[in-house]
From TrEMBL:
Alphabetical UniProt keywords: ATP-binding, Nucleotide-binding, Transport
GO molecular function, one term: ATP hydrolysis activity
Native source organism of the sequence: Nesterenkonia alkaliphila
Protein name, UniProt field: ATP-binding cassette domain-containing protein
Matching SMART domains: AAA
Cellular component GO terms held in the UniProt record: membrane
CDD domains: ABC_cobalt_CbiO_domain1
Length: 261
């Protein structure tokens, strides 16, 4: 079985800065990865590559069996669900929550003259309901609360029934109850047998949903460690990644970390 994502020696350079430096790792079908790392470590850059929105300066990136640079990314992108600030910022504020989800079927963010099938509309509505935001279907995206927006964005990311789901800080800006609900919803989603391979970027270990299988730690564009959760998410690796002595705490499949006193 070929990997869902296969990065080999991926480097991204902007001017003199290396956003990613010689990063290699693979994601296999059925795996759920968490990416952790300080601000500016290159996490979003990595997701941009995984979503076919950015090509490596050197190295190779294969996404869903296609090599970036040798494939029409417009054919590849509908196979990948992306929830990120960049996508949210490109959604016109007046667009309704329903259209925000529906337009993903065409890989666009604003509704224009496309004709959508009843089936697509039903699917978009069903996804809004499944993510607890069915009641705001006709509200402009700009009037939604942060938590509602996050749920609408995840519904949008799932609209094309993607083979790879990429979530960049989906819990940012949520209150405690909202975060806990989101963590449960994502955990349920990945528990489903046919769930897409999923990658979640977060700053907070509390946001790692139970059921995630692997972790990748990035610091300053470089991979500190990548592998199965149990052996890779350790106090030592976290301390090295964040350059602070940290102690990992695990409780019933949930995680947290504190500075060692
Ligand atoms: N076009 C660019 N030119 C120069 N530097 C850039 C460019 N785009 C991004 N960077 C820098 O690359 C680094 C990595 O950015 P990236 O957005 O991938 O980090 P991140 O790990 O997602 O950070 P955060 O946790 O703050 O979201 C940052 O220092 C950023 O300022
Ligand atoms: Mg980021």
């Amino acid at each position: 079985m070929s990997p869902v994502l296969n990065l080999q020696g991926v480097t991204v350079r902007r001017g003199r800065k290396l956003l990613l430096n010689n990063v290699s790792f693979q994601i296999q079908e059925g795996q759920r990865w968490v990416i952790l790392g300080p601000n500016g470590a290159g996490k979003t850059t990595l997701l941009q590559i995984a979503s076919g929105r950015l090509f490596p300066t050197t190295g190779t990136a294969q996404v869903l069996d296609e090599t970036l640079g040798a494939v029409d990314v417009f054919e590849l992108r509908p196979r990948i669900g992306l929830c990120s600030n960049a996508v949210a910022n490109s959604i016109p504020g007046h667009e309704t929550a329903l259209n925000t989800v529906l337009t993903a079927a065409y890989g666009v963010t604003g509704r224009w003259r496309e004709q959508y099938e009843r089936l697509d509309e039903r699917r978009a509505f069903g996804l809004l309901n499944a993510w607890g935001v069915g009641t705001v279907f006709d509200r402009p995206f700009s009037t939604l609360s942060e938590g509602e927006r996050k749920r609408v964005q995840i519904a949008r990311a799932l609209m094309t029934d993607p083979e790879l789901l990429l979530l960049d800080e989906p819990g940012a800006g949520l209150d405690l109850a909202g975060r806990e609900e989101l963590v449960s919803s994502i955990s349920e989603l990945v528990d489903w047998e046919d769930a897409p391979a999923t990658v979640l970027v977060t700053h907070h270990l509390e946001e790692i949903p139970p059921g995630f299988t692997h972790v990748l730690l990035l610091r300053d564009g470089e991979l500190v460690a990548a592998g199965p959760m149990g052996e890779t998410l350790t106090s030592e690796n976290l301390s090295e990644t964040f350059e602070v002595p940290l102690e990992l705490v695990e409780r019933e499949g949930r995680y947290s970390a504190f500075k060692k006193s």
